[in-house]
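Re: [ENG-882] Designed sequences occasionally contain unexpected residues at chain ends

Forwarding the minimal case from QA. Structure tokens:
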């Protein structure tokens, strides 16, 4: 029997072995810190060896990188280490000129600011880039949850959001759910502006999305009102309008919680009109009731649900704003509803207020 040929380890096996050996030497969670320490030491040695040609300012690089990449537990110690390296190499700067003194002051000031930011981040427990990524991931998941589900070929539904600051975080949002032939969509306007309204909207959109898929249409606004009351926020109210639509028959129910009225286009007349619905604002009255307005969307009909940022400005009454919106809808949606939500939201509303718009059309 011939000698068995020795098999050479594969590239993947060698890589795994190298990674395992590196993991024993430097834990995975500390590799970034180790690389930044080596970078800082390299810069410090260069300043020490060639003090006349190497300025102190390159030490800003590891400070900035550490602020972006390290967690709140590692970052304070790393800042102290960088400042210690700075203190060690300063005596080698001979003579100490005004430019060097300014560089030292700037570096210590930057280190102090990074330390302050690390103490703030310790409340969250993650580093700069990691914390931002978590927030972006949360936003993306909630936006996907609020996306319009796939509808039968005879229906078109589009939603658009615009924030006052031009970001993807806004106090207005849309959530939707489809169960069989029933499509439920809610357009919500959270009280307040800026970061406060945006963070409340993120929380509420997740909660409302869960309630929408779990409850009967008649129960949703009552449950949402109870949820808001339990939050006990200082500015914890919101307006909402809820459309429950049977995509097989076109029958719908509309319920409103202090929200601007829906707009309906009837194909027979070709004109837009408002559908008035009444109900108290969410988060103010315990045990509030929300009555429904029923109707049927026939072929060619369309409906708009929107927030007050679409129709109200500091210089214009909401009634005049609704009339203007209906006129623009008559002009911009004539014969072509595809992309209509985008066209309308770009043409209407205040750029200083959050705006949300939902367009539903039965082809």
């Amino acid at each position: 029997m011939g000698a068995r040929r020795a098999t050479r380890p594969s590239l993947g096996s060698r890589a795994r072995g190298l990674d395992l050996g590196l993991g024993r030497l430097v834990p995975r969670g500390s590799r970034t810190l180790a690389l930044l320490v080596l970078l800082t030491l390299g810069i410090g040695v260069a300043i020490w060896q060639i003090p006349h040609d190497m300025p102190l300012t390159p030490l800003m690089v590891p400070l900035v990188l550490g602020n972006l990449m390290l967690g709140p537990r590692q970052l304070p110690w790393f800042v102290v280490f960088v400042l210690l390296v700075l203190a060690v190499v300063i005596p080698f700067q001979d003579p100490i000129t005004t430019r060097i003194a300014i560089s030292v002051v700037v570096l210590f000031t930057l280190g102090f600011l990074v330390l302050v930011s690390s103490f703030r981040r310790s409340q969250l427990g993650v580093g700069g880039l990691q914390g931002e990524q978590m927030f972006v991931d949360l936003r993306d998941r909630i936006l996907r949850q609020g996306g319009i589900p796939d509808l039968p070929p005879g229906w078109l539904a589009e939603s658009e959001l615009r924030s006052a600051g031009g970001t993807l975080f806004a106090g207005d949002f849309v959530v939707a759910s489809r169960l069989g032939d029933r499509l439920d969509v809610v357009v919500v306007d959270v009280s307040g502006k800026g970061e406060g309204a945006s963070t409340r909207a993120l929380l509420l959109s997740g909660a409302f999305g869960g309630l929408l898929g779990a409850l009967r249409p008649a129960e949703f606004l009552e449950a949402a009102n109870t949820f808001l009351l339990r939050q006990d926020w200082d500015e914890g109210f919101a307006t909402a309008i809820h459309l429950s639509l049977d995509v097989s028959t076109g029958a719908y129910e509309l319920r409103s919680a202090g929200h601007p009225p829906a707009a309906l286009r009837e194909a027979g007349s070709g004109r837009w009109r408002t559908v008035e619905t009444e109900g108290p604002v969410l988060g103010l009255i315990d045990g509030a009731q929300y009555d429904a307005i029923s109707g049927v969307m026939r072929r060619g009909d369309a409906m708009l649900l929107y927030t007050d940022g679409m129709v109200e400005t500091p210089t214009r009454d909401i009634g005049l704003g609704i009339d203007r919106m209906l006129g623009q809808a008559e002009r911009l949606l004539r014969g072509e509803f595809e992309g209509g939500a985008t066209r309308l939201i770009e043409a209407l509303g205040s750029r200083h207020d959050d705006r949300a718009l939902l367009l539903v059309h039965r082809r």
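QA comment: On inspection the terminal residues look reasonable. The domain at 135-362 is CATH 3.60.40.10 (Phosphatase 2c; domain 1). Proposing we downgrade this to a documentation issue.
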